[in-house]
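Notes from the pairing session

We agreed to fold both candidates in a single pass and log them together. This is the raw record for the first candidate, unedited. Please don't reformat it; downstream parsing expects exactly this layout.

Candidate A
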Amino acid sequence: MQHFDEKGFWKALLEFSILATLFIVSAVYATYLQQMLQIKWRAWLTSHYINKWVSNKKFYHMQVIEQNTDNPDQRIADDVNAFISQSLSLFLGLMSSVVTFFSFVGMLWVISGPISFNAFNIKITIPAYMVWAAIIYAVAGTYITAKIGKPLVKLNFDQQMFEANFRFALIRIRENSESVALLNAEEKEHQNLMDTFRYVFQNYWQIMVRQKMLGWFTSGYNQIAIIFPILVAAPRFFAKKIQLGDVMQIASAFGQVQSSLSFIVNSYASIAAWYSVVDRLRTFEKNIKAIEILSAKAR
C-alpha cells in the first residue's frame, strides 16, 4: 500500500484469505477430532472398567473383602473422564512445547554466540551459552516446583475421595428418605453430612495453601525469566560484541526456549491432579486383580 501497488495488494489479500481459511478449518477440526478421541476413549475405558467391576460379582466382593477401594462408582464415572480429558490436554501442551523448543533452539544457538571467562588461570569458552543458560534455568525451576508441589498429588487424591464420600452420603439420605423421616433423624443426618463435608473443606483448604505457594514461585519464575536473558547477555553487550537489537533477539528466542522447557513448571498443578486420578484408577485395577486372585484360589 505504501508503494500504491494495487495488484500486489489484492494478491496479498488473496494469500491471507487462503491462509485464514486453512487456519479456521484446522482450528475447528482440531477441537472436533480431540472431542471425538476423548468420547471414544472414554467409552472404551468405561466399558473396560465396568466389565471388570461387574463380572463374577466383584462389585460385591470388593465391598466385603477389599475395602480399600472407596467409591468405585465415582472412579468409573468421574475419574475415567478426568483422566482422559487431562491426559489429552497435557499431551497437547507437551507437544506444543516440543515443537516450540525445536523451532527456536537453533535460532538461539546461532544468535547467542560464545562467552569466555577465566577460572583458575584457565580460559574457558562456552559456545551458545544462552542455550545452556535456558536449560539450567528451566531445570532449576522444575526441581523447585516439584519440591513445592509434590504434596498436591496426595491432596488431590484425597479430595476426590472426600468429594465422593460426601456425594454418597447425600444419595444415601435420598434413598432412605422414608426411614429418616419416620425416625425423625433429620438432626443426626444433618450432623453426619456436615462431619463428612468437613473433610472436603479442610482438604480443599490445604490444596489452596499449597497452590498459593506454588503460584508465588511460578509467577516469580516467569517474571524473572523476562529479565534473565538480558542480564546474561549484558556482559557481551557492554563489551560491544553485540548490539541492542541482538540483545532483544536473544531475549525473545530465550523466552521461547525457556518457556518450552518450563512445561512442567507451568503445568505442575494440572500434572498433580492428573497423577492423583491415575493413582486412583491404578489402585482400582490393582484391587480388582487381587479379588480375582482370591476368587481363583477359593475355587
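Candidate B (folded immediately after A)
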Amino acid sequence: MTNIKMIQGTVTPGFEKVEEQFKKNFIERGEIGAACTIYLEGQKAVDLWGGYKDKNKTSPWQKNTIIPVFSTTKGLSAMTIALAHSRGLLDYNEKVCTYWPEFAQNGKEKITIKQLLDYQAGLCAIDEEITLEIIADFNRLAKILAKQKPAWEPGTKQGYHTWNIQWYQSELIRRVDPKKRSLGKFFQEEIAVPLGLDFFIGLPEDIPEEQLATIIPFPKIEMLFKMPLNFVLSLLNPWSLTSRTMLNPKFVTNHNNFNKREVLSVEMGSGNGVGNARSIAKAYSEFATGGKILNLKQDTLEAISAFASMPENQTLDLITKTDIVFSLGFIKPTKNIQYGINERSFGVHGAGGSVGFADPVKKVGFSYVMNKMIGSLSIDSRGKALRGAFYQCLKKI
C-alpha cells in the first residue's frame, strides 16, 4: 500500500472530499501512482499527485511526472482540429476531399469532416499493416489512408476509429495549415506552448527518462470480467471488424510497448500522447471557459458542446459493442459514460482509466491520470469517485 503521506498537492477549501477519494484510490482501489487536477472557472480547485511512478514502487510520483494516456490523447487531438476550425482553416461540414483531393477514392468522395470526426466514415480499419516506420512517414501513411475503402456507407453507422482517427486528422491539418505542420507539431506550437502544457503528441528526445512514469498493464484475464462479452469475442476473432480495427498496428496489443521511447516518439494522437493531469485539465478548462487565450470563436465552442446527432439514432458502436456517442472527435455523456453533469460536457477517456473532460456549463476542466491500468471500456471506479466527489462539493459552494 502507498503511504498516503506521499500524496502531495493543493485543494481549494470546499473540495476536501476530492482529496479524500484520491487517498481512497490508494488505500482501497489498488492505485500505485496517479494525479488529478480540476479547474473551476479558470482556476485550479484541485491539484493532487502521489504514489510511485513504477510497479516496484521505487520512484515517487513527482509534480512534473508525465505518463502515456492512451485514448485520452484523442481529446487533445480534437482540440487541435477545433482550433483549426476556429481560425477558419477548415469547416466541419465540408467534404474531406475539398482539402485533401486524393481522399476522394473508393467511395469516400462525399465524406465530411464531421462524419469522420463522429466516427461515421467507415474508416475504422486499415487493410494494410501499419508499422512504426509507416507512422513516421507522413506521406506514405497519407497514401495508405487515402486509398482505404469504407467498411460501411459513410454516415449510416458508427464505429470507433481506435488508432487511425488522428492520422486522418493530421493529414487534414497538414493540408490546411499554411506552415504544413503535422497535428502533433500544430498542437505543440499553437495549444501547448500558449497554455504552458506538459503534453506531447510525439514525445521529444529531450524529455528526460526520469520524468516518465511507467505504464502497468492490466492482466488480460480482466477483459473477461470487465468488458462486454461481445466485444471480447470480436476482439479474439482476427477476421472481425473489431479485431482489424483495434489490433493494427500490431505493437498496440502489448501495452508495455507504450513504455518504449520509439513508440512514444511517433505521432499517434489517437493513443500515445504523454502528459500530466494538470495539462489535460488546463486544456479542457480553456475550452470550458470561452477560449480567451487561444482566441477560440463562439461557433466552434457551440459546435463541440452541442448534443450529438447519431446515425439513425443508434448509439451502439460497431467496434466496442457499447453505447457511446461521438461528436467532433470527443465523446458526449451517456448513462454509462459520465463526464460533467450536463449534455454540453465533452471529453475522452483512455484505456486503463485516464480521463479528461470539459463542462462548459459549470466551467470545469477535469483530468485524472494513473499508471496502473484497469481492464475497462468505460471510466473505472477511481475516476468516477474523483468526479463524483468534485460535483458533490460543487453543489455546496
